[in-house]
């Protein structure tokens, strides 16, 4: 049985090169079960989900990390999120027939935005890279080079059953006692980085999806000294709630909400991520716009 719904860190001993492997199985199927995505959109979303978990693995944060891809092409919006405890969700929006092509092609040379927000939304960090004639992995490599200044390589793959990703990163080398030692260590790290990057580039999407973590690491890097860490579980979990939906309706405004009530008898807001439906009748809506706070409003931030 292959590894499921997990993120595993590994490192090359005595070197600044580290990596992560992610596999999404049940969490990925839960993400797409209520959507009839065309294959090309589905796979792009799966790759983005895997990438988001990998990004969350490499960065220290408390709150959530959002990957957003926006463009003028047929696949015009892709949003994936991961919390510090690796709860994932994601959604894609497209119009018309989406042709096969690179992510840059199907999003119309979109841009990738990575946002990290603290749980209390007090701090926010954002980085943007354009997708020019390339896929998400290449776009994110650019992102790491520009925003983090850490050489990073990524490989991503997805199908209807699972999404997977491999990330390699070369961290800055620490300084040792002498300049000569430093020079030697740096050259050695550079050699290892080049070597493992080339080896990882031979991995096909089918192998990335089909092999277990141990198989990937053994078959690719059997001549290297690789240390595997215990994997952490990743899951599908949506952060939507009735309270958040209420505040969305408040933002929409009383007139507009009452208008929907007049026409439909109730307001139904369906979460795009998990397909959960939140229903508000005339009484709920009246309470929503009165001064009296709703019972669920206390958790609102
Ligand atoms: Zn939801």
Topology (elements, then pairings):
Elements: E1 6-12, E2 17-24, H1 26-32, H2 39-58, E3 63-70, E4 75-83, E5 87-94, H3 103-106, E6 111-118, E7 124-130, H4 136-148, E8 152-158, E9 163-170, H5 179-200, H6 205-210, H7 213-221, E10 226-228, E11 232-233, E12 235-236, H8 242-252, H9 254-264, E13 266-270, E14 277-281, H10 282-288
Parallel strand pairs: 5-12
Antiparallel strand pairs: 1-2, 1-10, 1-11, 2-9, 3-4, 3-6, 4-5, 6-7, 8-9, 13-14
Zinc ion binds next to loops.
Helix/strand order: EEHHEEEHEEHEEHHHEEEHHEEH
| CATH architecture descriptor text of the largest domain | 3-Layer(bab) Sandwich
Cα(first) to Cα(last) distance is 42 Å
> In CATH terms, what is the fold-level topology of the largest domain?
Hsp33 domain
Verbal overview:
The protein has 301 residues and is an alpha+beta fold. The chain folds into 2 domains: 219 residues, Hsp33 domain (3-Layer(bab) Sandwich); 58 residues, HSP33 redox switch-like (CBS domain Like, Alpha-Beta Complex), CATH 3.90.1280. 37% of the residues lie in helices and 29% in strands. The strands form 3 sheets. Strands 1, 2, 8, 9, 10 and 11 form a 6-stranded antiparallel β-sheet that branches. β8 and β9 form a beta hairpin. The longest helix is centred in the middle third of the chain and has 22 residues. The chain is elongated and about 75 Å long. The two termini are 42 Å apart. The structure holds zinc ion. The site of zinc ion has 6 residues, from loops.
